[in-house]
Amino acid sequence: MSKTEPTPATEDADIGAAGSQLSTAPAEDTGVAMPGSFGGVRKPGALGWLAWSGREALGWVRWIWRQLTSMRVALILLFLLSLGTIPGSLIPQTSVDAVKAENWRKAHETLAPVYDKLGLFHVYSSVWFSAIYILLFTSLIGCIVPRTWQFVGQLRGRPPGAPKRLDRMPVHTTWHTDAEPEQVLAAARGLLRKRRFRADATGDAVAAEKGYLREAGNLVFHIALIVMLVAFASGQLWKSEGQKLMVEGDKFANTLTQYDDFKSGSLFRADDLNPFSFSLDKFEGTYERTGPQRGTPRTYEAQVTYRDGADGEPKKRTIKVNEPLETADSKVYLIGHGYAPVVSVYDGQGKLAYRGAVPSLPLDANVTESTVIKVPDTRDKDGNRTQLGFRGLFVPTQVPEMPMVSKFPALDNPRLVLTAYRGWLGVDSGTPQSVYQLDTSKMQQFKDKDGKSPFAQNLKVGDTMTLPDGSGTLKFEGIKAWATFQVSHQPGNGMALAGAVAALVGVAGSLFIQRRRVWVRAVRGADGRTVVEMAGLGRSESAKLPEEIADLAAALTKDAPPVAPKEPVAPEEPVAPEEHKESGASEEPATPADSADSQDSAEPSEGARA
Amino acid sequence: MPLAAAANENLAHISNVLIYSAMAVYTLAFLAHIAEWVFGSRSAVGRTAAAITVEARQAAAAAGGTAAAQGGGTAVLERPKVVTRSAVGDRDIPDGPGAAGGSEKGDVYGRSAISLTVLAFLLHAGGVVTRAASVERAPWGNMYEFSTTFGMAVVGVYLVLLVLKKNVRWLGLPLTTTILLDLGLAVSVLYTDSDQLVPALHSYWLWIHVSCAILSGAALWVGACSTLMYLFRDGYEARLVAGRTGPGLDRYLAELPQDRKWARFKAKLAKGTDNPVSRLPAAATLDKFAYRINATVFPLWTFTIVAGAIWAEAAWGRYWGWDPKEVWSFITWVAYACYLHARATAGWKGRKAAYIALFAFATYIFNYYGVNIFVTGKHSYAGV
Ligand code: HEM
Questions:
Q1: Which residues are within 8 A (CB) of B173 and not within 5 positions of it... i.e. 6 or more apart?
Q2: Predicted structure pTM score
Q3: How far is the CA of A354 from the centre of ligand 1 (A)?
Q4: A296 and B196 in contact by Cβ < 8 A?
Q5: Cβ burial, residue A317 (10 Å; 0-12/13-18/19+)
Q6: Whole-complex ipTM
Q7: Is the four-CA dihedral A194, A195, A197, A203 of positive or negative sign?
Q8: Rounded to whole angstroms, how far apart are CA atoms B106 and B275?
Q9: What is the pLDDT of residues B68-104, one digit of tens each?
Q10: In 3-state terms, what secondary structure has residue A479?
């Protein structure tokens, strides 16, 4: 961007208006604009004071606004944003993993309160982080609006006229011809227009410009950033996310009470949940059977029957790990699975006290599971009320050597290893209990016949465990799989995606399209022949400009064939290679003429400076 | 099935052998590059490179911007000549003569180093491909595979730039050094037996997301190298303009009081490094090259993050969840945006922008090694 190049005053004057507005980047305040007294003269009396304060305040507001929307402050805010994002990845965040954050708090007693004060357990919603991005986006809006107007102005205006001295432009060429100046200019204008420049003839020169899409792309990119922020924010505010564990055969309807666990954004309301329901028909997992990766999961599939709305048609669907079920505005993801042994428990009176599938908690990759069965409503053989509890392991593939650890995650040799308790489960004591834990503080473990070692049994499907003293029986009836689902509702996804695509297209346009200006001047020289001058100006990074000018000049020579001036105005001078940056790096020093004409010596990386 | 598994293990074994062979050949290339630099410093051209650049600068100054651009003698000219003027503010110092510094022996070593690099690259690529075949999926399911593929991409980017005749031969030594470090780390610390993916990683977005991430990183590596060299070269050129190289530097050093330890240290360091640095391309060339690479990669990196978000949405039900990996790729993205802004802001271009670029690349590297090893998150696939 040549206009912010630290140019010596004289050089600046050369490029001057010709280089202005090659981009709509805000002008840099080069002078140190000190906020001073904006109020000016203060007239006596209260009114005078009021007027003065008003001017003063306005002056400050303007000054702050100018600072905020300058490139420099935007740059600093961007840098702060990248630094400010770091702590959130190193310190456990409550919003990402609450348990981990809590453990960290416990482990660091002195640091935790300080971190709490600084909001380091929820960086991305903390005051200071919000301040950074809100300021940045304010700056962004304050930057985009004037730039858009400026750009519209440029689109409606004409490319700036040719500067007086074209030979001071970064790329320049000139030749003499016998064609009339008007002819040359007309040809140049036609040529430039054909190459999709906006070209205009004014006076003795044609001014042309191309690559406006760069600016458009840049604006689209920055606007898309705002769209993405809005989409993200609305997603956070209105989102909801709930989890549900389902055993094969279970049904789920999308209401708040059915969830095991539910989180939502601050503007979410329970009736935002759209009605749908589904039942888990079957869950299937397949695993690698051979090789070093034996046991690694290959596929997980949940087959469900799904109904849209309160009473829609039932439809069969398969949910996989990367393939959620999509409903009207929610998605149902498969996030976990395990086995649930199906048991029936008869009490001392022979009455069926419990029957059902018991989802068990997986402990390792081979799905060794911890199983807890609570049977609150039983009577012993004498008819007294008591409660029964069972605890143990479910092992999908048992081998005789290690009965307590599964050797494979599939159901190759499923066993249930249980021990039993009686007494009081404490389930109605008021404090909530985990279904995966058995509180044995008020229970007594059944003992073996010898009266010492705990009573335990290794059951396969169909086996029955008979408790000592006729306290009851447990029958291992079968096995079902369970799966956990996450139902997510996140509005704004479509908008975020649209924003992302726009940002991509915009930034590609902004970085790959070169905006450049070309001028052609044709005047009658002292010898009566026409002197054609052509010059180009681009942003400092553009490497292709010398090639393009060479190309344009070659094309124009068809209408303005070069001839030698009648009386050579300047003797032929050897041109120092340094003049031609192309030759600086190339292996065989190219002659200046070569460097302009041949394609490969003007390679961008070989130091062509435009 | 067992037959296939055995075949796969065989392939994995072949892959390992190929990677080790590639490392051996890279080592030879590395040594050849060292020889190139050493002979270059002994060559007459190398020794006088500093003097040459000074002369060139003066010649350029004398010629000014007034060189005639018209041909005189012939009656009809074929084509008008194009004159370029360097951007205002540039120092007008031409590129250095390259690592070999004009020494023929050095050049031979340099060329053989490149041939060796090509050979090593083929072995390396073979290693990556056989690994992919052995696991029957894209070769980036764990850090070992990621490292080897990443290294391959870096060499690939370098070779492509060479084929395109870009002025990147000076990259050879830093390239072979980093590749040896990368592969060394991969085979020793990060090695994981060939295995397959857990279902969460089964998605074609994996292909898109990770391949873009690898390609971006490889190109950003080239950009960062160029930026680093720019910083050295820029310091050298500043001293060159101030007349503080060669004999000038000796004089300066002699006049420096003994107690100005830091200044003396810097001057001595400069004395030791000026010779190789003088053979690098000009600061302006390096800076521009780094900018082009970084600016080209920025949209690709943006796409990488978007693709990752789409994948996360499909796998975990949210496109953005502040997972450490996501956070760091965002940091990298913002840091590169910052660099691009700095380049467009007066008072920030040049060295300051270069520091930001290095910071940005450091965040990329941290995202890869740091996050995988030290931070746990949903993306923890390190297998270490
Ligand atoms: C939300 C944070 C922002 C991001 C991620 C961002 C990113 C970018 C990127 C990637 C470019 C392309 C660089 C190029 O064309 O050379 C760019 C250019 C630009 N940005 Fe931003 N930007 C942000 C905020 C801002 C703000 C707040 C301003 C206003 C002060 C701003 C003004 C500009 C301008 C003027 C350019 C064009 C520079 C040029 O023409 O060379 N940006 N921005």
A1: B30, B33, B34, B36, B37, B99
A2: 0.81
A3: 66
A4: yes
A5: middle
A6: 0.86
A7: negative
A8: 14
A9: 333 333 334 466 788 877 655 567 777 777 777 777 8
A10: strand
